[in-house]
Amino acid sequence: MNLILATDNSGGPEIFSSLQGEGLSAGVPCTFVRLSRCNLACVWCDTAYTWRFEGDARPHRDGIAFNRRVNQVTLSVAETAAAIDRHTPRRLVITGGEPLLQGAALAELAASLRGYAIEVETNGTVAPHRRFDGYVEHYTVSPKLAHSGNARELALDPVRLSAWAAEPRAWFKFVIARPADVEEVLAIQARFAIAPNRIYLMPEGTGSAALRERTSWLADLCLRHGFRLSDRLHIHLYGDTRGT
Ligand SMILES: Nc1nc2[nH]cc(C(=O)O)c2c(=O)[nH]1
Ligand code: SF4
Ligand SMILES: [Mg+2]
């Protein structure tokens, strides 16, 4: 089977090693693979080159339409595994876009890798492929709030959210732009009975100054509600750049 990946600045597949910048394994050296395509369209998405191709009229704050041919590359599972293997870290972060849209190929990929701890970054709207799920150490589930611009029915499916809440390997990470966004997190937390200790609040932002400003008030909100705080370490270290 094949996987459709995003491209890096050289036009090759976006497979790279970096420190995990967010969530549970922040600071840990990881190998990343970024898959193309997403079923949502967040106005502040920092990887719009995975989905906002020419002809897509859904709004994005940068207004850029990406050329599909330049920003997607198709690799076989074997080619993807070989490219992953050329990197040192044996913790693999599968991200996107929405990687679970390619679950069947990910099951083949995971079966062909040996000795990896696998984590997945997902928007929480797609059920994990049954066979792939057996290989996953943990999921970082990032449900999208109203400020993402997605229709609520697309972004917050109650059946899916209940399933993630019941999944002990799932950690939740909410992108927060304004203090009022946390009200939505509290409603989701209560409705699906998610322990606050499983929830990260992370500032929205693609620059250090914006992240710092938002972190300054997010810290208080985390302390008040028992949530965890996530930074975006890679943005401070490398800026908003592909392959980092
Ligand atoms: N270093 C680094 N950490 C990350 N954690 C989640 C990322 C993502 O784009 O999903 C990401 C990323 O793109 N880079
Ligand atoms: S769900 Fe993630 S990849 Fe998809 S549009 Fe939103 S931020 Fe971008
Ligand atoms: Mg990212």
Topology summary:
Blueprint: E1 2-6, E2 15-19, E3 29-34, H1 68-71, E4 72-76, H2 77-85, E5 91-95, H3 103-112, E6 117-122, H4 130-133, E7 136-141, H5 152-155, H6 158-165, E8 170-176, H7 181-191, E9 199-203, H8 208-225, E10 228-229, H9 233-238
Parallel strand pairs: 3-5, 5-6, 6-7, 7-8, 8-9, 9-10
Antiparallel strand pairs: 1-4, 2-3
The structure holds the ligand Nc1nc2[nH]cc(C(=O)O)c2c(=O)[nH]1, iron/sulfur cluster and magnesium ion.
Binding site for S-adenosyl-L-methionine: 44-46, 97, 142-144
Subunit structure: Homodimer.
Binding site for Mg(2+): 47
Provide an overview of this structure.
It catalyses: 6-carboxy-5,6,7,8-tetrahydropterin + H(+) = 7-carboxy-7-carbaguanine + NH4(+). Catalyzes the complex heterocyclic radical-mediated conversion of 6-carboxy-5,6,7,8-tetrahydropterin (CPH4) to 7-carboxy-7-deazaguanine (CDG), a step common to the biosynthetic pathways of all 7-deazapurine-containing compounds. Its cofactor is S-adenosyl-L-methionine; [4Fe-4S] cluster; Mg(2+). The protein is of the alpha/beta class and 244 residues long. It has a single domain, classed as Aldolase class I (TIM Barrel, Alpha-Beta Barrel), CATH 3.20.20. The protein is built from 9 helices and 10 strands. The strands form 2 sheets. The chain has an 8-stranded mixed sheet with strand order 2-3-5-6-7-8-9-10. Strand 6, helix 4 and strand 7 form a beta-alpha-beta unit. Helix 2 crosses helix 3. The protein starts with a strand and ends in a 6-residue tail after the last helix. The mean pLDDT is 98. The site of magnesium ion has 2 residues, from loops. Ligand 2KA binds next to strand 2.
